[in-house]
Structure formats: C-alpha cells, structure tokens
Amino acid sequence: MGTLSGKTALITGAGSGIGLAIARAFSREGARVLVHDVKDIGPLAAELGGVPLQADLSEPEAVAALGQRAAAEGVDILVNNAGFQHIDPVEDFPLETWQRMLQVMLTAPFQLIQALLPGMKRRGWGRIINMASVHGLVASPYKSAYISAKHGLLGLTKTVALEAGPFGVTVNAIAPAYVRTPLVEGQIQDQARTLGIPEGEVVEKVFLAQAAIKRLIAPEEVAELALFLASDRAGAITGAVFPIDLGWTAR
Ligand SMILES: NC(=O)c1ccc[n+]([C@@H]2O[C@H](COP(=O)([O-])OP(=O)(O)OC[C@H]3O[C@@H](n4cnc5c(N)ncnc54)[C@H](O)[C@@H]3O)[C@@H](O)[C@H]2O)c1
After folding, report:
1. Which residue segments constitute the domains of the chain, with CATH numbers given?
2. Ligand 1 within 6 A of 214 CB?
3. Burial status of residue 2 (CB atoms within 10 A of its CB: 0-12, 13-18, 19 or more)
4. Half-sphere exposure of residue 47, counting CA atoms within 13 Å on the CB side?
5. Tens of pLDDT along 27-81?
6. Ligand 1 center to residue 68 CA distance, Å?
7. 19 lines ligand 1 (CB under 6 A)
8. pLDDT (tens digit, 9 = 90+) per residue, 130-189?
9. Residue 13 C-alpha to ligand 1 middle, in angstroms?
C-alpha cells in the first residue's frame, strides 16, 4: 500500500520537469494519475498506467473541457503545475504574452479548482497543490508577468484554503527556486542576452546569486514535498506556502 493508494490525482504540465517527477512519485505511491500536458502525453500515461489528458491551458474553453473530463474521473488531488517563462523588460513585454501567462498560470488553476473542488467537498477529502515559485514571494527584474501570476497564485491558494478547509480539503503552494528542468535551461540564453553576460555565467551569477546552497534543485526534491502535502500526514496544513529555495528567502 502506497501513501496515495486509492487516490486519483490530476497533474498539469506532467510532460516535463517538475510535473513529470510529481506524476512518477504519485504513481509510485499508488495514486491513479491523470497526466495532462499541451503536448502528447500518451507514452507517459502508458508508462504509469494512467490517463492521458491533452489540453492547451492558454485557451479557457480547453481548460473548461479538461476540468469537466477530470471531474468525471473523480479527482482527489489536483496539482496545478503547468507553466512557462518569458523574459523582457516591462516596457517591451508583449501584452499577448502577459495575457497568456496569466491565463496558463493563474486563470487555468482557478478554472480547474472550480471544476474539481465540488467533488472533493462531496467526498470530504481533497488536496490542491499549486506550483508557485520563489517568484511568488520575491521579484527579479524582467519577469513581470511570471511574477505577477505567481504572486496571484499564492492569493488564490490562501483564499480557497479558507473556503475548502471545513470540507476536508487542503490547499497549499510550493515555491521553488531554480530547479534543473527544460524551463530553466531555456532561460540561460534569454538571461545572457537580456543582461549582456556570457551564457556560462548565468547559473552562478543569476540563478544562484541569492542561494545559500549553491546548486540547482532536482525535480524529484520538489516532488517529495508535493507527495507529503498530498498525503494524509499533511491534513493539518492548509493555506501555506512552502519555499524550497536553497535559502534564497532567508535573506
Ligand atoms: N524550473 C524551475 O526552476 C521552477 C522554479 C519555480 C517554479 N517553477 C514552476 O514549476 C512549474 C513546472 O515548471 P518546470 O520547470 O517543470 O517546466 P517545464 O518546462 O519542464 O514543464 C512545464 C510543462 O508545462 C507545460 N505547459 C506549458 N504551457 C502549457 C499550456 N499552455 N498548456 C498546457 N501545458 C503547458 C509544458 O508543455 C511542460 O510540459 C511551472 O509552473 C513553473 O513556473 C519552476
């Protein structure tokens, strides 16, 4: 019997990085996993004996359809994880990109909570885990949309925690610093260009500048925290934000 035996979990953005590590960890612990991504997620679903759900979270109608489909499966654990990054000075930041980031990283979680919370309340048990970021707590330059979305996601986390608590549903957020995933690897070139420094210096001078522990985080380390928050052992924890940030926010 695993920690999550008998539970069904929806993980968005499960095709890569942190979402992939969470899907594997939850499956290992006995959960039935609904794995979602914008890209083909069939092979991962087959590997984990789960259900593939493909949808583009930048389209509100697609998110609504995903929510309906997932609700029909009886989701006990929702992990709002999908996200992406775009770096530009605020005055050059494209409005369309701002709107897409807010839709994918704030409005889609809101829509999925709307779709899945009623079932959790009916069953008297539920877990919602929102993948925020250290950038939900502090800012860095050139990431106005990402940081606004992640700060907003923490507000959503706290609000829904208050509404859902009486029904046995906990709502928490994880706030990682730089995790070694394609999202971060893709930023190296952008950061070098925007800051005018060589690519080789980005990890040390940008990603790890605030860190007390000088290394990137492994996706599996974030998955372990998500696994704890999803378990019965975390039943008294709600409305909380968990930094896993190498000491960044201790400054
Ligand atoms: N990597 C980090 O350093 C880091 C740090 C803090 C927070 N986070 C957050 O963790 C989450 C996962 O990031 P990651 O590093 O694993 O990134 P990643 O790029 O490895 O994975 C993100 C996944 O989200 C999916 N996705 C992106 N846009 C989508 C859309 N429109 N519709 C559906 N799916 C979409 C991608 O296809 C991808 O599979 C994100 O919310 C990110 O903001 C990451």
Report:
1. 8-178+218-244 (3.40.50.720)
2. no
3. middle
4. 12
5. 999 999 999 999 999 999 999 999 999 999 999 999 999 999 999 999 999 999 9
6. 22
7. yes
8. 999 999 999 999 999 999 999 999 999 999 999 999 999 999 999 999 999 998 988 888
9. 6
